[in-house]
Specification:
Shape of chain A: globular
Oligomer: homodimer
Strand order of the largest sheet of chain A: 14-13-12-15-17-16
CATH topology of one domain in chain A: Ubiquitin-like (UB roll)
Helix content of chain A: 25-40%
Structural class of chain A: alpha/beta
Number of strands of chain A: 29
Number of helices of chain A: 17
CATH superfamily of one domain in chain A: Beta-grasp domain
Radius of gyration of chain A: 27 Å
Distance between the termini of chain A: 68 Å
Largest sheet of chain A: 6 strands, mixed
CATH architecture of one domain in chain A: Roll
CATH class of one domain in chain A: Alpha Beta
Largest interface: A-B, 55 and 55 residues
């Protein structure tokens, strides 16, 4: 049938975006939305199983394959899964707010970051500029242009054994003569044996420009996340951030998580499509950065890039298929510098990308970058590093050893798998208090608007506060006999109404369900059990940490007290916790400033011991024990347990 | 006018090739010939000044710009310069034998080459293959594919600190698993600091193949000459030549000499055109080599390439313009390894080209290659190396020092600038004797056919013999009062008829003119004066050479005695002379077999001192003195002079 329709064109109009797209009759509606630039969730990559891409067909005919994700009521209202729908006539489609892919607030940076920053590195970017005034050639001094350049570097800067990129030579004669033998040479410094400082340095000419261009010397640092791509433009003379920008990863339509994307990459042409999608995003971020600054593209000499292993391999066009199959093997742990143009990134020809090395399939360059950026590998202090994102990765160690693991926390901390969960954006419920008599809530919403959902940190605050108020029991169930109509029976069992329909942006009650609570408990249990298992494997315990560094989506918006109350973070004095925001971007930036740290990254990645939790009986025990609020074993959260018990007693007395 | 005609098509038929080509009305006839694959001389690059591209218009109309190169008689016969002619109607064009570009005989290899070959090198190609049987990964042994490979190299072959080409990683997961973790890894070995042996080696993975492919391990060696491109296919396991092939350099239509080609490269798009032309030739030679052997293209791992500085820069797409402008500066003396695909060469992606370093604009990688291949830089013996081609380059030295110069000998030794000069191909007069009574010649022709011209070695033999026979005086003039009708007055003064028209292939008398003799004297004088100047500059003399190595177009076909008689080669015992044929190809081949020699090439190029003769008063004096047969100063050719005087006396007595 699609065959018959393929030559006929129809128009799809998307609201509230108010954009049109012309497509062939029979086109998939999710693909039409992607083409129109309308961003939808599509967690499962278009297989129809997740139900996150729901839209409402307001006008026109479409053919759909109905799944259990669409209730009868929804079906009656014209709600369809975009990925399961084919366009038959001109359509008007409404995209509800909960199906829209929205951007987390950019400004979620860390606080007190300076307390956890790598130290002891020299400000020495991998690329450095040298200005030369060369004597013009004569019949007696007739060295080649290249030899003259190398001689100049030796005489004026004592630089010897300098190599050269082949492409430089092609235009060298014109360039050296353009400003009468005054040129600026850009040199790349690398360790002879990558990751070994003591073997001396290798220098290579990667750019030659007429005249003195030393003033203009920039680089880019990037974090390539599964959900978002963040970039910073750096001034290499001043060691400063000039601009930053964030965009959704263009791969989202191919699936919300790395596993789905790897599966998509196995389809014919799939790897190329996924690669192009993220490269397009990177180019868009670069455009944003240039638009925000006075910087010329040609003055950007290099790019450092950190991402999880799957993102890194997809970006580089490396076959990722064995990442998702036991025993979970990535193609490589480290990557040589790559020329931007070979990937389609719109920077100066010859500009290089330094890619952070990975530890394993599920502990990637983003974590190594965080470890480098926070300098935890440099200190004697026993540090617990956790990066909370779609996945949770943890590292424990000090300057002598580092162990790491990936915890399949699931997306709950980012609002995934939560009925009204959304990313931390305008309209997200972030703060929560409850009147312990009336059980009426007091919510704090990002942007002070009406709420449209709950973000991860809001969820943690809400559950912690409900635990204290006795609304949620320690096994994560609602006290359903409380005198409030906010606790009611919904389709997923008991639920608590956070906001009534008229007080919301979405026109429906925003609720917290017992399933939501269970999902959050699973997530926090995975993180905490990971921490315990890892600690135990090196003969220590969560109580021994001198420092806890929190990186990831929460920025500094995670309430430490709440996180301890629910049993996500170990019970330690609050001053031991440090937020670093995007640790991956932090490390990428510092490495752009210092070859010392670039060298370290390879060495540290190789030194980090990966513990495979999915294979560990210890982990399964710890996980089961952690499926309680805050924990089955009162002794690991003594203070929280004591307070909760006390309250319970008091409440009991009051009654 | 061309504008009006551009949309009309006409057909040009070339004889005796019997090929048609359809072109736009108004098309240049030389371009039409190139497009039709008809090879014409075009020494001046199509500017109309050389007159080597003459053709006969047999039928149809063409518009021509007449130059002084076309005599009235020729014009009447329909002779036109193809480069000055535009096609107006369908044409039939005859290409006379003297305008055809023909190939010198391939087999012009050296003899006794083994007496002058580099020694002391280990058979150790820059690329080597290692077979690995790796343990499959498990949950506990979950190193990345790359790490597993590196671990295998370390455990099985004690190879450490091995790097990797980025492109390898893209397909590595599939490749290691295809034959159950049995793979063959190809490693590239380079010196850490190129040209310094003592700094240790750098190893890099440049290819990984499933299974055991060690049996199939090949390389290519190329000499890129201004006129011809020679290639050899090498078996790196056996150290043997499997096939060789030679083709005209596709740049010839853009000019016969390097200066003309550089000028052409300055036109818009010119550099790209010239680059493409020679790359096409290289690809053709590769096709020939593969067709001659059972070798699969993907099993060729690298290519070593030697050429003069201009050929090297044009091939690499490097701007060559300052090579032809005083003070004659090339873009670079050395070139980093280049990926074949970046140049458009049809080898396996990632295969590398090693390009020989140059000394100066006019002493190129071909000479360095000759010096390396003949091992003259390794011996105590004082060696004189000369490469006679379109240009003549000379090197004097030993293991301690090397001086070099380029002599603008002109193309006489290759038959250029000689009325009936042709390259050494079938129909070329190569041997000559003369009856000292009748002055009738006895000629030896390559291929035993009727003659169609004289090649360079034939010219030297002819003039030497005529000197002995008293037909040519010591200032290069004919004894025009001899009793023979073979000496007559032609358009260029006196000339000697080597063959009467009916006895030739070209249907016209083949003659040797006084202008021809003068051109040859200029050429030999430049070579000899260069040798003298260079010797003097280092405090030695031509009489002191322990060894004379002759490379270049002559192969082993240069008659040493004749060459000494005319004063081209220094008067030394004949056993000191060694022919090596194509020295450039010889060096390229040996370097393919040994990284030791590859390292040496960069070091030796830097050690060779270039003397600029065009700037030297000494050279001008020597040159003037050498404009005599054999030389103005009898003492530098004592034996030749004695014999000639004796003969003269005897002849005088006989008379």
């Amino acid at each position: 049938m699609a065959k018959d329709l393929a030559h006929k064109k129809v128009t799809v109009h998307f609201n509230p975006d108010n954009v049109d797209i012309v497509v062939a009759k029979g086109e998939n509606l999710l693909q039409a939305a992607i083409a129109a630039g309308v961003r939808l969730h599509a967690s499962c990559g278009g297989s129809g199983t997740c139900g996150t891409c729901k839209v409402v067909i307001e006008k026109g005919d479409a053919e759909t394959t109905r799944t259990t994700r669409i209730s009868d009521e929804e079906y009656g209202r014209g709600v369809r899964q975009a990925c399961q729908t084919r366009v038959l006539t001109d359509l008007t489609v409404y995209v509800p707010v909960e199906s829209r892919l929205e951007r987390a607030i950019v400004a979620r940076e860390g606080k007190n970051v300076s307390a956890a920053l790598a130290t002891g590195w020299r400000f020495k970017p991998p690329l450095s500029k040298f200005y030369l005034e060369l004597p013009p050639p004569t019949m007696t001094d007739n060295a080649s242009d290249l030899s003259r350049l190398l001689r100049g570097l030796k005489q004026q800067y004592k630089l010897k054994n300098v190599g050269v990129d082949f492409d430089i030579l092609k235009t060298l004669p014109g360039i050296v003569r353009r400003k009468n033998w005054r040129v600026t040479v850009t040199l790349l410094t690398t360790a002879v044996r990558e990751g070994r400082k003591d073997d001396g340095r290798r220098l290579r000419i990667v750019n030659v420009e007429p005249g003195d261009t030393r003033e203009r010397h920039y680089a880019l640092a990037f974090d390539i996340g599964t959900t978002t791509v963040c970039g910073q433009l750096l001034d290499l003379n001043k060691g400063k951030i000039l601009a930053d920008s964030i965009e959704f990863n263009g791969q989202i339509p191919y699936g919300q998580d790395v596993i789905t994307r790897i599966a998509q990459a196995q389809k014919p042409g799939g790897l190329k499509k996924l690669q192009t999608a993220v490269i397009d995003t990177i180019n868009k971020v670069i455009d944003n950065l240039l638009a925000k600054s006075q910087v010329n593209l040609k003055d950007i000499g290099h790019m450092t890039l950190a991402g999880n292993t799957t993102m890194t391999e997809l970006l580089l066009g490396v076959d990722p298929q064995y990442i998702r199959l036991a025993p979970y093997i990535p193609a490589a742990n480290f990557f040589p510098p790559v020329e931007v143009r070979s990937l389609g990134i719109h920077l100066r020809k010859g500009a290089l990308i330094f890619v952070f090395p990975a530890v394993s399939s599920y502990v990637g360059g983003d974590i190594v970058s965080g470890v480098i950026g926070t300098g935890m590998y440099q200190r004697n202090k026993l540090t617990f590093f956790l990066d909370i994102g779609t996945n949770g990765e943890i590292v424990i160690g000090n300057s002598d050893w580092l162990v790491t693991a990936s915890c399949s926390a699931g997306p709950a901390f980012e609002g995934g798998g939560i009925r009204h969960g959304i990313v931390a954006t305008d309209g997200a419920i972030e703060d929560f208090d409850i009147d312990e008599k009336t059980y009426e809530p007091k919510i704090g919403v990002i942007g002070k608007s009406k709420p449209k959902g709950i973000c991860g940190s809001g969820l943690i605050n809400t559950i912690a506060r409900m635990m204290e108020a006795g609304v949620i029991t320690r096994n994560g169930k609602f006290q359903h006999n409380l005198p409030t109509k906010r606790i009611r029976t919904g389709e997923d069992g008991y639920e608590y109404v956070m906001a009534w329909a008229p007080d919301t942006q979405i026109g429906r009650d925003i609720v917290l369900t017992e399933i939501d609570i269970e999902n959050l408990i699973r997530a926090k249990a995975a993180m905490y059990a990971g921490c315990q298992t890892l600690s135990k494997s090196v003969g220590t315990s969560c109580a021994a940490f001198d420092q806890v560094i929190i990186a990831g989506a929460f920025g500094s918006h995670l309430n430490i007290k709440s996180a301890i109350t629910i049993g996500l973070l170990p019970e330690l004095p609050e001053d031991r916790f440090i937020f670093v925001g995007n640790g991956s971007l932090l490390g990428a930036r510092l490495v752009s400033f210092s070859t010392d740290l670039l060298d370290d990254s390879r060495r540290i990645a190789a030194m980090m011991t990966n513990i495979e939790l999915s294979d560990s009986a210890d982990f399964m025990d710890s996980y089961t024990a952690a499926m309680f609020l805050p924990h089955t074993h009162a002794d690991v959260f003594p203070e929280v347990t004591r307070k909760l018990s006390e309250r319970q007693k008091n409440t009991g007395k009051r009654k």
